[in-house]
Amino acid sequence: MDAAAQHFQGTIPGSPPTKRREPAQERSLLVWLPLPSSNERMSDAKPREYFIQGITLEGRTFRPSDWAERLAGALSAFRPGGVRQGSHIGYSPYCVPRVIGNVKCVIVDERLRDIEPMAWDFVMNFARDNHLQVSESCQVPEPPAKG
User: Could you tell me which of 32, 86, 94, 120 has the fewest CB atoms within 10 Å of its CB?
Assistant: First the structure.
């Protein structure tokens, strides 16, 4: 079997992956989203956030218990303006650990994909490889203050 026949998923953005016959129980976190229309500028679109939850697709709590802090710490260098000498240690605003509803999560801003595609792939592949639940949200602006 040649290498091309072993490649199961397409490499063209926006094309659905070909069906993989083995293994039958494999689950994918891949979600196909519509592309923005040509008259919609990317700067007008609100950035999305992806919530990687510390619950597996099978419903078990993901271990080790500090996985969220470790993952966010590994991506702490990816920040606006890059790493500056003498700056304090902290998480990147594009990848932050949180506890939501008593579940450890990592919130990943999709702008990380533009800054460093390999870091984006790393964090999303981490979720997929560990069968973690991933949900998506869009940042909504705060309503004006009544007063």
Answer: 86
